[in-house]
Amino acid sequence: MGHYAIALGARRWLRPLPMAWLLFASIEPDLHDAVGNAIPALSIGPDTHTLVGVTGAALIVTLLAAILFRQVSLALGSGLLVLSHVGVDYLTSRLPLWRHGPDIGLHLYATPWADFLLEALVMVAGLILYAASPDLRRPARGSLIGMGLLMLAMQAIWNFGLGSR
Fold first, then answer.
1. In angstroms, rounded to a whole number, what is the distance separating the alpha carbons of residues 23 and 5?
2. Distances in Å between the alpha carbon of 65 and those of 33, 54, 127?
């Protein structure tokens, strides 16, 4: 949920980009991971959440955004959203810096309450920034509380429910 919250918060500065693009950029490494696992012959699975792999993905997303949206600031913002993914994941997980490289990270997943609190803070910050976006209509702002509660509930299920991971 934290990755989606970062995309929502980024909306304030990247308003011309479609929300679907912001959400895509924020979870691109996870999508890349799914493709790598579905098609092992691509041999990308081990790299999707490394600093090297995410940097490569960020460069590709930046290039795509530059072609599609024709604005350097929007392209760079898209790439930064991709890079934010690995930064947040190094807080919640322990992941290699590069393929077969050293694992780093706080691994907050091992302490569900700590992970939940971090994710909740990111969600609140993202929703506050999103609510301040000038293009958001006033009636839509009221629904942000419901969206925030749904995001918190989903995070709680991830951290505390539905069996062990």
1. 9
2. 20, 16, 24
Record the pTM: 0.87
DSSP 127-161: HHHHHT-TTS-HHHHHHHHHHHHHHHHHHHHHHHS
Summarize pLDDT for 107-162 with one digit per residue, the tens.
999 999 999 999 999 999 999 999 888 777 766 777 888 999 999 999 999 999 86
Tokens found for residue 146: 């419901």
Cα separation, 28 vs 48, in Å, equals: 9
- What torsion do the CA atoms of 129, 132, 138, 143 make, to the nearest 10 degrees? 10
